[in-house]
């Protein structure tokens, strides 16, 4: 893996080619962004593209979704000079939490948790994850933020598929993703 190579043409989404395809089967995400996260220019350009639509928007905090969303969310929070909130799978936080059940992209029933003392009424939160496939995980995060009185300032992910759940999120919230329109059908039909 060449962590220094940057192509001469750097159109939006050039770094998507750094993502490794799934070789483990249907219980895993289609593409893995960990190699993208290892590439310094790729990660910087990805974060810049994700945050571009939110320039000038009021954002008080960035929340990343367990687990790959932690990396992208923390990078976005650092870029914005905002705090970072981890939205976790159940059982990992040792503080008082609010919980929300959901069904993930693989059809498994899970529970998402967030600490109850981190979100105050009116706090504007940018939600970040690596991927919105069916929308179940992101929707659980949205419900947690809103239940605690927070405001979803936006939703950002490397890819937002045009699934039923992805469309539900895009119709209700300001969204940002990195997939150019010409490549979107390929990402939707994996």
- Count of DSSP-assigned helices: 6
Uncertain residue segments: none
- Lateral arrangement of strands in the main beta sheet: 5-6-4-3-7-8-9
What is the radius of gyration computed over CA atoms, rounded to a whole number of angstroms?
16 Å
Characterise the protein shown here.
With 190 residues, the chain is an alpha/beta fold. The protein has a domain at 57-179: Rossmann fold (3-Layer(aba) Sandwich). Helix content is 29%, strand content 27%. The chain has six helices and nine strands. It has helices at 34-38, 40-51, 68-80, 136-147, 164-172, 184-188, and strands at 20-21, 31-32, 61-65, 83-89, 97-103, 109-115, 124-132, 151-160, 175-177. The strands form two sheets. It has a seven-stranded mixed sheet with strand order 5-6-4-3-7-8-9, sandwiched between helices. The protein has a two-stranded antiparallel sheet with strand order 1-2. Helix 5 (164-172) links the parallel strand 8 and strand 9. The longest helix is centred in the middle third of the chain and has 13 residues, at 68-80. It is globular. The protein starts with 19 loop residues before the first strand and ends with a helix.
Summarize the structure in short:
It is built from six helices and nine strands. It is α/β, with parallel strands linked by helices. The chain has a domain at 57-179: Rossmann fold.
What's the arrangement of secondary structure elements?
Elements: E1 20-21, E2 31-32, H1 34-38, H2 40-51, E3 61-65, H3 68-80, E4 83-89, E5 97-103, E6 109-115, E7 124-132, H4 136-147, E8 151-160, H5 164-172, E9 175-177, H6 184-188
Parallel strand pairs: 3-4, 3-7, 7-8, 8-9
Antiparallel strand pairs: 1-2, 4-6, 5-6
Helix pairs in contact: 2-3
GO molecular function: adenine phosphoribosyltransferase activity
InterPro entries: Adenine_PRTase, PRTase-like, PRTase_dom
Domain Phosphoribosyltransferase: 56-178
